[in-house]
Design brief:
The chain is built from 17 helices and no strands. By secondary structure, it is mainly α. About 55% of the residues are buried. Its main location: membrane.
């Protein structure tokens, strides 16, 4: 077995911690985007995902996702109950001198954030108990097998030669498609088309987006699996792709007559981060800028499709994660270069083979995830119920589901913001 590499081990431990930070960051980001009467529920959905997925991953998830299975669809059960992490303490399982317990922790953090991403689509209306059951079932039935398909040497997508550096297909398309399937089952919010669902706290949104961006360096650069040049390239590409996406998004808004906004800028951050994820260590910085810029252009229009097709994706998980993730995965067929990816995309002298494989494999994951999420949602709907009552939804899900309020402020009237109505000037001066 390889000797322990302390440098690689330190980097992967650091990266795992950065990826874990992304879930509380997501709670801030999503929480700020909701109404004040929904912020606690949204943050709790993210928080409980950490608890659920951590335990599921150690008990069974890692075996399904990374075990050396005899099939192309799921791993064996040789590392059930954390057995591999407990027995291989001083050397890696053949990977860069990093102990298995560290790889267990790193993979766990990816699974956590993937599940948490889905929660944004069903803000304001999904029962917390139903979310707990959904998250548990989905991570076992969808995330873990798809992770095996995409990243394990025995997985059918990996064997097909499809590339996914850090999770464009396995994480973002996977979560975005599940969000679509679940949102359809849960249904639209009351007053969706004409109600006031404006974000209640933009500073919270910016704080969450900034912490997501920070954590994403562990997500992408950590996926090099070593402290090496690939990690450096992934780090650099993550930065420039995200920067390009912000600028492109704001430009599109300007052309459409929309003023530059925190919502637009932060949405550009997420779009760029998602799009570069599958390509982070496999393209040049110039390619990364192009990938980010295209994401910043297409995602504003993709978000608008929910109004055309009538599905209520409350916080735009589909328009950002599924669409930007799909674009990022397909973009490898254009921008991959052989020195990093082992194969050239179309723009570097390759043929259309990789482009076709990237699109086909990503499409299969999209359909599978959406379908299973839809089925799980239907089972919940017709058993324990998946949605809070109309009265509870109108009053605010936080009080109904958690008995808490995000802000201890006096409320004069129902403003939909959770903040007190503006006092009249003469009363202020009295």
């Amino acid at each position: 077995m390889p000797e322990l590499d302390t440098g690689n081990t330190a980097w992967i431990l650091t990266s795992a911690a950065l990826v874990l930070l992304m879930t509380p960051a997501l709670a801030l980001f999503y929480g700020g985007l909701t109404r004040a009467t929904s912020v606690i529920n949204m943050m709790m959905k993210c928080l409980v995902a950490i608890g659920i997925v951590s335990i599921v991953w150690v008990l069974v998830g890692e075996s399904i996702a990374v075990g050396e299975g005899s099939t192309k669809f799921y791993g064996d059960f040789s590392s059930l109950f954390g057995s591999r992490a407990a027995t291989e303490l001083t050397a890696a399982a053949g990977l860069n001198g990093v102990p298995s317990a560290v790889w267990t922790a790193f993979g766990m953090m990816f699974a956590i954030i993937t599940v948490a991403l889905i929660a944004g689509a069903v803000a304001d209306r999904m029962k917390f108990s139903a979310w707990v059951i959904f998250a548990t079932a989905w991570v076992i039935l969808v995330y873990c097998p798809v992770a095996y398909w995409v990243w394990n040497a025995g997985g059918w997508i990996k064997q097909w030669g499809v590339l996914d550096f850090a999770g464009g297909t396995a994480v973002h398309v996977n979560a975005g498609a599940a969000a679509l399937g679940l949102a359809i089952v849960v249904g639209r919010r009351i007053g969706w088309k004409d109600g006031n669902f404006a974000p209640h706290n933009l500073p919270l949104v910016l704080l969450g987006a900034g912490l997501l961006w920070f954590g994403w360096f562990g997500f992408n650069a950590g996926s090099a699996f070593a402290a090496d040049g690939f990690a450096g390239l992934a780090f650099l590409n993550t930065q420039v792709a995200t920067a390009a996406a912000i600028l492109a998004w704001l430009l599109v808004d300007r052309i459409r007559g929309i003023k530059p906004s925190i919502i637009g800028g932060c949405s550009g951050v997420v779009a760029g981060l998602v799009a570069i994820t599958p390509a982070a260590g496999l393209v040049t910085p110039l390619g990364a800028i192009a990938i980010g810029a295209v994401a910043g252009i297409i995602c504003p229009f993709a978000i608008g499709l929910k109004h055309k097709f009538g599905y209520d994706d409350a916080l735009d998980v589909v328009g950002l994660h599924m669409v930007a993730g799909f674009w990022g995965s397909v973009s490898l067929g254009l921008f991959a270069f052989e020195d990093a990816a082992g194969v050239n995309g179309l723009f570097y002298g390759g043929d259309a083979t990789l482009l076709g494989k990237q699109a086909a494999a990503t499409g299969v994951v999209l359909v599978y995830s959406a379908l299973v999420a839809f089925i799980i949602g239907l089972i919940l709907k017709y058993t324990i119920g998946i949605r809070i009552s109309e009265e509870e939804e109108l009053a605010g899900i936080d009080a109904a589901e958690h008995g808490e309020a995000g802000y201890d402020l006096p409320i004069n009237g129902n403003t939909g913001t959770g903040l007190p109505e503006a006092a009249e000037p003469e009363k202020v001066n009295a």
